[in-house]
Amino acid sequence: MKGMMKAAILYKPMDMRIEKVKIPQIKPNEVLVRMKRVGICGSDIHYYLHGRIASFVVKEPLILGHECSGEIVEVGRDVSRLEIGQRVVIEPGFVCGKCPYCRSGRYNLCRTVKFYGTPPFNGTFAEYVTAPEQNVYPIPDNISFEEGAMIEPLAVGMMAAKMGRINVNDTVAVLGAGPIGQMVLQAAKVYGAPEIYVTDLLDYRLDYAKKYGASEVINASLENVVERIMSLTDGEGVDVAVDASGSPLAIRQTVDIVKPGGRIVLVGYPPSEVSLPIAEILPKELTIQGIHRYANVYPAAIKAVSSGRAIVKPYVTHIFPFEKILEGFEVHIKKIGKPMKIQIAI
Question: Domain range for residue 73?
Answer without folding.
Answer: 4-150+312-345
